[in-house]
Amino acid sequence: MTPNRYDRRRQDVGNIVALEHVNVWVPDQRLATIFWIMGMGFTRDPYLMVGIENMWVNIGQQQFHLPTGTPQVLRGTVGLVVPDLGELTERLEAVRGPLAGTRFAYEVEGKTVTVTCPWGNRLRCYAPSPEFGDMVLGLPYVEFPVATGDAAGVARFYETLMGAPATVGDDGAGVAARVRVGGVQSLVFRETTQPLPAYDGHHIAMYIADFSGPYRRLLERGLITRDTSEYEWRLQSIVDPDDGRLLFEIEHEVRSLTNPLYLRPLVNRNPAQRQPTYQRGRDAFVPRMG
Ligand SMILES: [Fe+2]
Predict the structure, then answer these.
(1) How far is the CA of 90 from the centre of ligand 1 (A)?
(2) Over 60: is that where the pLDDT of 289 sits?
């Protein structure tokens, strides 16, 4: 046996095991369907939220939740991995007409496609690559803006209060705190000199292994905002644990690994399947297909 052959720390995950969904309200489920299902090529969850009051959109093992309401816009960018960027832009081109008059737009920028949803949410789409492990369809990160100088405090918040490893550094696009989530996901807080838009109540949802430790630490600081159920609590304020200063607001729906929804299999379709060119047995999305 050769000891120390591998850097075992590379596989350390920390307390946040999975980032599961981003929740933004949408005012019009018809336009949301055109954008998310037809344009982006994702799959409406067939089992839960199947009416017009909400839509869950499956993206690999992650989701967007889209309750009907006053539109919300995430401050920042949601990273997405899609199997084929060329097929994505073909689909987006095809929904230009039905989405005319909304904020829908897309742009090819180097090896990514930046997409704006009909209400202004920004998505950055990537082809599968080693940087995202074996993710072929999914949501690898959510990136938020923070004021210059605040990234280090955000990293301290996640390390100290949430038990999640976080690093701060310049990744070529500026200084950012990167919080490790599971194997290949992350939460990114990028420093900016631009003014931060007001927070409108959108949220992110995650699963954590040590469910009670962060709860206890946040409760002591008065930072638990909701005791939703046996398996879920929420926090909204990210503060510097050193001085309590508020750095950013984003509601975290925090779930335990005993939550009945944990590791729920999500149905994903093959968006290339068409009636005129139908291929038997190819309805379901299969990773590495083609
Ligand atoms: Fe949620």
Answers:
(1) 30
(2) no
